[in-house]
Each structure stands twice: as C-alpha cells, then as structure tokens.
Design brief:
heterotrimer, A alpha/beta, B mainly alpha, C alpha+beta, A: alpha/beta, Amidase signature (AS) enzymes, 11-stranded mixed β-sheet, 11 strands, C: Arc Repressor Mutant, subunit A, 3 domains, 10-stranded mixed β-sheet, 3-stranded antiparallel β-sheet, about 40% helix
C-alpha cells in the first residue's frame, strides 16, 4: 500500500474516507518504528499501547459520527523536551530520567484535541543544546540518508523519524536552528514560526527569547496543517501572541508571481561549492516560479553566532538553574551537604555541552563582563532586527541555504566554534523572531540532502508556508524517501 | 572577578569562580577540556566588540507586536497537587522536600 | 554617643493581599499544610512560565500614589540569580532597572515633631518558599513561593532606631489604610531589613554599612539597631587611628535574642553577584496617565489626611490625632465610637490612654479583648450625660476589662454602687451631716476661703462614695451656706 509515501494530509483523507482505520494506520507506523528504529535510534520512548488506545477511541468516535479533529488518525512524535502529562520528559538528559511531567504542554494539548495520535518521544541533544544530536545523554540518532551521519540537531530524533517515514509528523523546537537544520540534513520540511506564535508553556526552556516549537513534516502543507492546530494564543505564556489562529492550508498557490525574494549574496560567500551550486539552482527554480530576486544587505548577520552564543547561553544558564536535584530530577547520592548536593548533582546530571553553555552564560552575565558581552550582544541583536526590517522593505521573503553543508559523519566535529558555525544561516531568524522554513532543495554527490530556507517578517507565517509550498510543488524533493527506508517493513 | 582585557587570558581561576556562581563542580579532566573550549568560544565572541553600538538600545523584547501589559485576572486557577509534586521529588518528609541541614549563621 | 551620628536605610518587604500569587494562579494564603498552595510555576517545574497578576500591579500603583511617589509609566522585570532551596527556580523575578514606583515620602511623628522620610523606590517581586530547620535536615515548603511582594526602599535618611520604628509604623499604617497588605509581622507579611552605619557628626561621607536582616517586630528592630550602633561605635572608638573602612567590614548580621547582640551571618568581601538581566518571559508594564489617575480615585482617606481631619474638624490635638491614626484598627474603632458619641476628645482619651493602660499588662488591645467600640462610646456618653461621675467611670472601665463584651450601661444598671446620686433628697442629709461636722470650714468659707468650700464638697463626695454628681453637691452646699 505504501502508506509511508503519503503525507499526513493524504493519510487523513484515507481515514476520513473509511479506506483505513486509525488503528490500522497506527499499527502500520508502529511496525515501521519497531523494524527500523534500531538503526536510527530516533526515539527515546515509544507508546504502542497508548497509541493504539487512542486510535481505537478515534475509530469509535468516527463510527459514532462525532466531530473529528484536524489531525485525525495522524501519528505524531513529540520531541522529548515537551511535556505529555504523566509521561517521562528526559530532555535527553541524565538529570531527568525519572521526571514525570505533571502537565501537558499547550502545543501537545492542542494536538491531542485535534485527534493526533501520540506515538512516542524523540531523541534530542541534551536540553536542546547542539546541532548534531551527539549530545544526547543516551545515544546519538542517525541520519536515514547515511546512517554514519548525524540527522542534525537538536531535533535530530524528530527529523530522522519523519525522514524515514516512521511517523508523518513530529514536533521539534528551534532556538538557533534546531528544527530547520535537522530538516535540511534529513531532506524534509521543518518550520519555525514567528516568536510567540506557538505557546512555550510545557516546552522545557533553553533560550526563552529564542525558543519556538514547530512542525517537522514530509510536506509543506502538513506543516501548515500542524500550524493551524498549534498556532494559537495561550494565556499561560506571556509571550504568546494574542492573535487569532490562521488558515495555512487553503488556497496554497503554486506560483511566486509578483513576489520579491531577497538574497544576501555577500553573506553566502562561505558556502561550499556543492552548497553554492545547489543554492543557485534553487534560485533558478524560484525565478521560474515568477519571483523577482532582490539583492539585500544582511552583512551584519556575520555577528549572529556570537550574539546568539552570548544571549542564548545567558538565558539558558538561568533557565537550567532550576535543575539542582532539590525538587525533582536525579539527586546525587554522593552529596554530603547542601553545597555538594548542588555541585555534584549538577556535575553528574548535565553533559559536557550543557555545562559549557551554562558556564558561558554565567560568565557573560557576571559582574564586570555583562556590559561588554551581554549588553553589547543585546545591542547587536537590535541591529540584526533592524537589518531584516530594512530588507523586508524591499522583499517579501529572504532566501538562504539552511546549512553551510550537507550532513557530516558523527564524531567528526570536535571544535566547538566549528560546530556552532553550522547554525550561521538559521540563527538570525531566532534573533529576530522571524518565521522561517527549511524545505528540501536537492542532493549532493553522496545523495545527502540540501535544504533551502525562506524567512519572512514577523506574523507572515502563512506567506512563508505559501512560498515554500510553491517551491515544493515545482521540485517535489520532499517525495524522495531515503533508499534504505523506501520500502514496506 | 576583575575585568580582563582579552579573553584568551580566561584562566582556571575564572573557571573556578564561574563554577561557584553556577553551582557546578567539574572534575579535573572536565576542568581542562572546558577551559580550552571556553577560551576558544570567548575568543570568537569577542568579535562583537568591533561593532559600533553607540546609541543602539538593547533588544529586550523580540516581538514587535506583544510589547506591553500581559496580565492575568486575580482568580484562583489550577493547582499542582502535593502528591503530584512530591511524585518527582528525590526526598521528602512530612509533605516537605527534604534537604541536608542548613547552617543558620 | 553624641559625637556620632547614625545613618539608617530600611528595606521593608510586604506581602500584597491579592487572592493569588504574583505569577501564578495559586492561592495567596498563609498557614496551610506544606506544599498545598502550589502550582507548576511556584515549584519551578521545567516548562513553567510566569504570568503577571493584574491586581498586584493595581495595588502597587495604589501604594505609589499613597506615598506621593512617581508611578513609572514604563516598568519591567529582571531575573536575580542565586541558589537556595527555598527558591523554586534559583532566580527571583524582581524589578531592578525599571521599578514600578520611584521616589515617595512618608511623614511620621517622633517626640512631638513631624519628620518626612524620603523613599527611594518600591518594586514588585516574588517571595521565596519557606525553609524549616531541623537538627539533621531541613524541609522546604513552597506555599509561600510566588506570593507577591512589594519592596519599599528608603533613602538613608533615618537617624535613630526610634525614627526607624516611626517610619515603619507610618508605612504600615498607609499599607493598612489602602488595604494592600494585612501587615501581619508574625505571619511574615511585613518584614524589615536595615542598612546601618555611623559616622562622626558633621562627617560628609558615608562609612561602611552592615545589613541586619529579617527583623519581624518593632521591639526587635529597635534592639537590633541599638545593639549594632553600639557595636560599631565601640569598634571605631577602640581603633581611632585606623582607616574606618578596615574597622567596620560590610556584612550581613542578625539579632541574637539570647546574647542580645548582633551577630554576623556572612561577610560581604565578595559581593553577591546576582547577574541581573531583563526577564525574557515577561512583557513590560506600560501605564497611562489616565490609568494612574483612575487608581488615584480608588484611594481611601490616608493616615495623614485623617490626622488633618481630626485636628481641624474634631478639635483633637496633633499629638492625640497622631496616636489615633497610626494604627488603622484604632482609628476605625474611634470612628465607629464617634457615630454613637460625639465627644471626640474624651473618646480619644479613653481609647488611646485609659483603656490601653488597663490592658497593657495582659498584652491586649481593645479589639483583641473584645470590647466593642459601641461600649466605649456608651461609657463616654454616660459621663457626658452626667449619668455617672468621672470617678465612677474609671471603676466601670475596670469592670469592662474584667468582663469584656458587657455593655457599661448594663454594668451601671446592675451595680447600685455606680448609680449616681443626683436626687437631692438623698444628698441633702449627707450635706447636713458634713456641715454640722465641720463648723470651722463653714466659718472659713464665710471668710472668703474658697479652699474650705472645696473641702466641704470633698467631704460630701466621700460620704456618697463618689456617686454624687459634684455639680449637684456644689449647688446644695451653696444653697445651704449662702442662704444662711
């Protein structure tokens, strides 16, 4: 039947038309997970009983002609830094191996209300800090296109699972590119909404002014569908935008006629040859869809990594202060007194990357350095926001590659700065709170995927989805499944 | 911690001070690895000092739409039950979280 | 002592009496079983977020207006980082850079003089949980975590422990009058920290200060301050030639009730680095002039306004009025009594002097012992209506204290000893007796000695056991003597 080749929207149609039951769909994907996750290690936890129970209940609901949700019968995997009530949320960390979430994240509740079927929790870099999923305290995840390679990070597990078609939709979180870069490395779609569009309540915070939850899917329309469900105002999150929900999936155009797409050519000089070639080809596609390419100046983006690694770590150093072994999480049995309780629990509970970022964040906020580091970074952030505002006066969206390269082999990048530079194209969207999507744009000579990024002004999420959809329709790269998983199991 | 002129002079003492503030105690090996990493990163982020930010305000708010007065009515809402709270606690006694004794003075 | 002057700054933390906590919808309530008034946010659960309580902002603005401060049109929150088990997130959400209230002043009466104290700022922040100490462990209760606090910071304009108490009492009165806090020091809803230094009279610069934390009663406030002043002066005098900055080292102290001395808790050689930065999870507060004015309209009569009214409309002395207003309960009690009996001066005297004198030893107040305002009013009314003499009234008051809740009208009715003797037929025989017993006095009086008359009146009063009205006795004796 090759159900795996279908998008979530298409699967839902089959369910609505009584061609397949929710139980059948769920069993199908559970089977795929069972057969292939060993190779990918995309999941930290799978919920076969829970998923089947939900599926059966949904089938009953349908039989009784009750109103069905927008994600009816669609299996959804949740990145393991978002709470599903009463399930463990590990955040990929040893610290929280026994932490049972006392509440569901708003985004999770919204998905549940629309009849999504939760199929499992996916692997991530610990506390979402990383670009390769190598920093999960448990094990790395693998890229379905090349198992020796990283799926990207921090939402590596989600991207890997969707790319291998183990689930049609997964949630990710994006603080510096953690949805988009894995989506690019895995040849699928990843969308980070406008800052505040999706509630952060129940998402374990990393960089409070950067974090956003977003969908990782096999098609742009599916991402739009997920946005219709999750993109709502939440009174439990003060930064949640008080705007009505929007429609993303109707009237999706297949043209970019009349649109102006800005390209910061100057900034793209650091691309590898292959990446450059692929990007130029994408630009040709965009032109052929009727868009005009505009030169824009985003040179200031060269500071975005530095700004990000000062501000996000500063926020993270305080967001992670609550993990101290006192109220929840693993408390070190070796501690003799209160000081040791903190010091040792945190040393043992956190991995190296997390500790590094906490210490860095503590440093940039500390007396004597705050002015030169934190405050300076805050000011440069303003300049970056202004640069985008200026750019958007002349174009409808900005176009850049998602990552400077395609995926790389696990354990090959040790230098921290080199790893951080992976995020050079994605990070500025988080700094400026802009909606950004990564869509598959082709392959390199080793058949590893490239990703193209489209970035819009704040609250232009629907437009970004529309532009991305047009590109997808013209290229159909998203329909290509990694060879090892392009079969029934 | 006294201010330093350039960051490659970020040293072991600085790292120790940070550990005290962040309440993390690194092992000897970790100390060495982290020191090198941090020196590299701090050297890198120093490039921000070349940006002229005179007169530029700090970005304290990302959203250009949500800029003021997000409030909640003063009404009791959903509580966390004590049972659920303590379910995750490493050590509890009499309904309280138990921690090692704290010197009062 | 007189060579030295004292410089004190006070930080008063008061819990606002909102229904719910500052950033979560858990109840703001004291005294419940541990960890039963908690929410996701108050326990710092991962994934939790703060949302600001509208009512806390409103009450903060009310306070700002009541202390004649500037209500900031723009204010925001900051994170203050420090690790402690009573902190659910290991950072407090407070307001450093842009507090909601700036400036302000309070007037208080000290030794008959009015002094105005300048306030530096007041801001909102969330309270921490509570640590309960036991010998082999400590227990943490997060019921209090997240309760809204207003921290009111004075300028270092307080120059004695007495002034410190007066300042806090005046501030407390304002807080009570505008009903933003129950100011219960025993429950911890009003807490005081002091910064204190001394210097030679006339010296311009400020010397090192020490901090005394968490004093929870006026009694201890004054004792602690006195003790610390003594300690500092003694040290300076012991080392007159040393650099003052080396004599008194900044540090945090607490008052030890056993040794009756201030004891160091920790040194401040390394100032705590709180690493304040703007709270990214909260959106700034922007208040319009219209909003601020609308809050001003909700303010009830303030203590100083009430004082002025007592002086100008009721004819009380400034001193008497100041004693009445310093405590809202007392003042309200007085106003209630006034609705029954209009003799303000007399009521004031009974409420602030006579009854407190009788209740002091038992440690009670009029309201705590249960004597309703109505009864005090009735007592004064009876005196004014000459139903009892002033002297009898004092005995009736004693009875009221012994049996709180018994109406003095009943007390007088049921005790024949209190019945006034005003019928002349009962007094006349006594007058006759006294006159016949004291012929010399009659002679003296006729010779112009007024004292003799008073003596005779006194004698008759004695005979009547004070029950006779002095005016009536006067009249009767005059009648007898002047006619003869």
């Amino acid at each position: 039947m090759e159900l795996y080749k279908l998008t979530a929207s298409e699967i839902k149609e089959l369910f609505l038309q009584d061609k397949l039951s929710a139980e059948e769909i769920t069993k199908y994907f559970l089977n795929r997970i069972e057969k292939s996750d060993e190779k990918l290690k995309a999941f930290l936890k799978i919920f076969p009983e829970k998923a089947l129970k939900s599926a059966k209940a949904l089938d009953k609901k349908k039989k009784e002609n009750q109103q069905l949700g927008k994600l009816a019968a669609i299996p959804v995997a949740i990145k393991d830094n978002m709470h599903i009530k009463d399930e463990i949320t590990t955040c990929g960390s040893k610290f929280l191996t026994n932490y049972k979430a006392p509440f569901s994240a708003t985004a999770v509740k919204l998905l549940e209300q629309e009849d999504a079927i939760f199929i499992g929790k996916t692997n991530l870099d610990e506390f979402a800090m990383g670009s390769s999923n190598e920093h999960s305290a448990f094990h790395p995840s693998h890229n379905p296109w090349d198992l020796a390679c990283t799926p990207g990070g921090s939402s590596g597990g989600s991207a890997s699972a969707v790319a291998a078609r183990l689930t049609p939709i997964a949630t990710g979180s994006d603080t510096g590119g953690s949805i988009r870069q894995p989506a690019a490395f895995c040849g699928i779609v990843g969308f980070k909404p406008t800052y505040g569009r999706i509630s952060r309540y129940g998402l374990v915070a990393f960089g409070s002014s950067f974090d956003q939850i977003g969908p990782i899917t096999a098609s742009v329309k599916d991402a739009g569908l997920a946005m219709e469900v999750m993109g709502k105002h939440c009174p439990c999150d003060s930064t949640s935008l008080n705007f009505p929900q929007e429609t993303y999936t109707e009237n999706l155009p297949e043209t970019l006629k009349g649109k102006k797409i800005g390209v910061p050519w100057h900034f793209l000089e650091q691309l590898s040859d292959g990446a450059k070639e692929n990007f130029l080809a994408s630009i040709e596609t965009i032109k052929s869809l009727g868009a005009e390419i505009i030169d824009i100046d985003l040179d200031i983006l060269k500071y975005s990594i530095a700004v990000y690694y000062i501000l996000a770590t500063a926020e993270a150093s305080t967001n992670l202060a609550r993990f101290d072994g006192i109220r929840y999480g693993v408390r070190s049995p070796d501690a003799q007194d209160l000081e040791e309780l903190y010091d040792i629990s945190r040393d043992q509970g956190f991995g190296e990357e997390v500790k590094k970022r906490i210490l860095l964040g503590t440093f940039v906020l500390s007396a004597g350095y705050q002015e030169a580091f934190y405050k300076q970074a805050q000011k440069v952030r303003t300049l970056i926001i202004r640069a985008y505002e200026s750019a958007f006066e002349t174009c409808d969206a900005v176009c850049m590659p998602t990552a400077p390269t395609t995926t790389f082999k696990l354990n090959t990048i040790q230098d921290p700065v080199k790893m951080y530079l992976q995020d050079i194209f994605t990070i500025s969207s988080n700094l400026a709170g802009l909606p950004s999507i990564s869509i598959p744009s082709g392959f390199d000579s080793d058949n590893k995927p490239y990703g193209l990024q489209l970035i819009g002004p704040q609250m232009h999420d629907v437009f970004v989805i529309q532009y991305a959809h047009a590109f997808e329709m013209a290229t159909k790269f998203n329909r290509i499944v990694p060879p090892q998983f392009d079969k029934e199991f | 911690m006294s201010k330093k002129q350039n960051m490659s002079s970020f040293n072991k003492q600085d790292l120790n001070d940070l550990q005290r503030l962040a309440r993390i105690k690194l092992s000897e090996e970790e100390n060495q690895n982290l020191l090198e990493s941090m020196q590299k990163i701090l050297d890198y982020v120093e490039l921000l000092s070349e940006v002229d930010t005179k007169g530029v305000p700090c970005c304290n708010l990302v959203s250009q739409f949500q800029t003021k007065n997000v409030f909640r009515e003063d009404e009791v809402g959903e509580l966390l039950s004590r049972d659920k709270f303590l379910e995750n606690s490493p050590d509890q006694i009499g309904g309280m979280i138990r921690v090692p004794p704290i010197m009062k003075s | 002592m007189s060579d030295w002057e004292v410089v004190i700054g006070l930080e008063v933390h008061t819990q606002l009496n909102t229904k719910t906590k500052l950033f979560s919808a858990a109840p703001n309530h004291f005294g419940d079983e541990p960890n039963t008034n908690i929410s996701i946010t108050d326990t710092g659960q991962p994934g939790s977020l703060p949302v600001l309580n509208k009512s806390a902002v409103f009450k903060a603005v009310q306070l700002g207006l009541a202390i004649e401060a500037e209500v900031a049109e723009f204010s925001k929150f900051d994170r203050k980082s420090y690790f402690y088990p009573d902190s659910p997130r290991n950072f407090q959400i407070t307001q450093l850079e842009h507090p909601i209230i700036k400036g302000g002043k309070i007037t208080a009466e000290i030794d008959g003089q009015l002094k105005t104290f300048e306030i530096d700022r007041a801001h909102l922040e969330d309270d921490a949980g509570m640590l309960k100490h036991f010998s082999s462990f400590a227990g943490v209760d997060y019921n209090r975590a997240g309760v809204p606090l207003i921290e009111i910071v004075s300028t270092p304009c307080i120059s004695s422990p007495k002034e410190a108490t007066a300042y806090v009492k005046a501030l407390k009165a304002i807080l009570e009058y505008i009903n933003v806090s129950d100011c219960d020091m025993e429950k911890g809803s009003l807490r005081m920290d002091a910064n204190i230094s001394v210097r030679k009279v006339g010296e311009k610069r400020l010397r090192n200060k020490t901090e005394i934390k968490n004093m929870n009663s006026f009694y201890f406030l004054e004792l602690a301050l006195e003790s610390e002043i003594e300690r500092q002066i003694a040290l300076y005098e012991k080392h007159p030639d040393e650099d003052p900055d080396n004599v008194i080292i900044p540090g945090t102290y607490r008052y030890d009730t056993e040794t009756k001395k201030t004891v160091m808790m920790r040194m401040k050689e390394r100032a705590e680095d709180y690493r304040y930065f703007p709270e990214p999870d909260l959106i700034p507060i922007v208040l319009t002039k219209e909003y601020i004015e609308s809050v001003r309209e909700t303010l009830p009569e303030l203590p100083q306004q009430r004082l002025q009214r007592y002086v100008s409309e009721l004819g009380l002395s400034e001193y008497a009025a100041s004693v009445l207003i310093v405590d809202k309960m007392t003042s309200d009690y007085f106003e209630e009594a006034l609705t029954i009996c209009s003799n303000a001066k007399s009521l004031c005297n009974w409420i602030t002097v006579e009854f407190p004198g009788r209740l002091k030893e038992a440690g009670h107040t009029l309201y705590s012992i249960g004597i309703p305002a109505k009864h005090v009013a009735n007592l004064v009314a009876m005196i004014d209506d000459k139903k009892i003499t002033g002297r009898i009234a004092k005995e009736v008051a004693d009875d009221m204290v012994k049996n709180p809740g018994t109406d003095p009208i009943e007390i007088v009715k049921n005790n024949s000893n209190y019945q006034p003797l005003s019928s002349t037929s009962e007094i006349e025989p006594l007058v006759e007796k006294v006159l016949s017993d004291n012929p010399q006095s009659i002679e003296d009086y006729k010779m112009g000695k007024k004292k003799a008359f008073a003596f005779l009146v006194g004698q008759v009063m004695k005979q009547t056991k004070g029950k006779a009205s002095p005016e009536v006795v006067n009249e009767l004796i005059h009648k007898r003597l002047d006619s003869k």
